[in-house]
Amino acid sequence: MFLITHLKKSLQILQQSSSAFTGIFFNVYCYIFTLILCFNSVVQAKQIELGEFRSGTVGKYIEYFQETDQKLTLEQAKIHFAKPNKVKQGNNNSISLGIGVKPVWMKFSVSNSDDVQSPYRLAIETPWLDYIDTWLVNDHKISRHIIGGDGIAFEQRPMPYRFYAFEHQFPIGVTDVYIRIESKGPLAVPIHFSNKEEAIKRDISAAYEYGILYGILFALALYNLVLFIFIKQKEYGLYSLYLFGFALNSLSYTGQLHTIFTYNIGPLFQDWLDIFLMITYSIAGLHFARALLKTQQDAPKLDKFVTKITLIVPLAMLAGLLFQQLIFSMALSFLLNTSFVILFIAMGVCALNANRPFAKIFLFSSVTAAVCITISTLAVAGILIPYNDFTFKAIEIGMTFEAFLLAVILAKQFRMAKMDKLVAESYARTDALTGINNRRGFQEATYSAWHSIARTGRDASIVLIDLDSFKQVNDKFGHDAGDTILRTVATCIATTIRKADITARWGGEEFIIFLPETPQDQAAVQAERVRVAIEKLQTYINSTPLTVTASFGVAGSEHNRFNNTELSVNAFEQMVKAADEALYLAKNNGKNRIIISQADGQLTQHLPKTH
């Protein structure tokens, strides 16, 4: 303005001069002055030319100012905009002014010199703004006044849309667009302006993007909820709540939830819902991290701080709701949400120092999410990072990536727990000394085979084995020597029997063999093979060779009949008992021999001992 005033005064002086040189200089000066005026008008009054502008944000085309004491009318706002030193020029894609600030007036101009016929959509892509008024002014006359915002009932808004938006076909010439926004929430104002065709394409693209995002989040949340219901590990329940909370919060603050739930509860309903959903996922996420990383054990002070902040902040926010102090509660929610990111990283570092499993993956996911949240925050605030679709959605991208990595951690933890369970079950079925089945393992291993044989009318047999004079070995050489003998004999039995046969340590120095698809007479032959193998064993105790023998009791079916009755599912215990009785006779009839149980259950037959 100073430059223009100076030029005007100079022109007046030159006009008073009559010399030829001065006349020539005057003409040149006028030409330069005209160029400067044109340049100045371009800087001061930047317009959107519809013939060249199809889609984009209009932050750089906007002039704006904030009300001070009283609400201004449109005419008063026009007067204010006419004072260049009273307005600010937008220099980013989004205008961001903070939380709980005074209402803002914005202005930009749209030129339709090419007579573009396509309607254009103006959308303010912050769904929580309470009250928005837009005036379209042509030739100093108001052609349209559009009222909307979150404080207006959904059915009264200019479009059934998640944002404040309207469509308009601009006439030839220049249309001045005046916007007034009043809101208690964060006053971030990204204004997107595009022709209708581009706006529809953008909506379709956003629908696919959000569909994929929410599909992933809800699928992971439901899967982990099912795991929590069945295995009762709180990590899975908290992770599920964390994902559900974030997905619902995203649906709310992007306005999509409020296109489904349109009941008019009040102008501040969305603001309250947003902040409480925000702390829901933050609290669930922090407690999930505590449980997953065992923070209580590795960093008790940090754990106590996390517990306190997740209790105090919600209670204080509820007090704010009770007394209708939205700004107070909103500040607390942003405090907790910011702390959430920092505490996630802190707990990850503590877990890494404690060498917790998956700490590196957790820390990497937390840092990635923090970076993405920072990008979105700075973009909306208009600081350092330009506002666009990617930077605005960076928070969703980061949180989805984090959710995926956390799901990987839980999947690996589940697999480790499953492997630990399998190992524990294996130990529960295995004799610790000999490494073969114990009694429980034997019963589980033979259950399905026995039931199949009994149902289909085939044969099966049982062989019981007892080491001879084993007590004398323990008394003479000690229990360590006895344990060595037991391990050697167990290995001998396991390597001598057939592949389909099942063996176990039955107790003490007794062993058992189940022979499927084997009648009693063939079982006796197999028992003899094992008896001979044991007899030939040599175990060295303190360089002294030691041999042992064993007595055998055999019981089985012939032609699917046992004890003169058809083999049944319930006959297993009877067969074991018969083999035990035969073993008793073998021990009392010279040992190192095989006794076969007879069909009548009374008589027994000696299988001659081989030498």
TrEMBL record:
It is an enzyme of class 2 (transferase). One of its GO terms (molecular function) is diguanylate cyclase activity. The keyword Lipid biosynthesis does not apply. Its cofactor is Mg(2+). It comes from the Bacteria. This is diguanylate cyclase. GO terms for biological process: cell adhesion involved in single-species biofilm formation; negative regulation of bacterial-type flagellum-dependent cell motility. Keywords: Membrane, Transmembrane, Transmembrane helix. Residues 458-599 form the GGDEF domain. SUPFAM superfamilies: Nucleotide cyclase. Signal peptide: none annotated. The chain crosses the membrane at residues 21-43, 211-231, 238-255, 275-293, 305-328, 334-354, 361-384, 390-411. It catalyses: 2 GTP = 3',3'-c-di-GMP + 2 diphosphate. GO terms for cellular component: plasma membrane. PANTHER family: DIGUANYLATE CYCLASE DGCM-RELATED, REGULATORY COMPONENTS OF SENSORY TRANSDUCTION SYSTEM. Its EC number is 2.7.7.65. Pfam families: 7TMR-DISM_7TM (PF07695), 7TMR-DISMED2 (PF07696), GGDEF (PF00990).
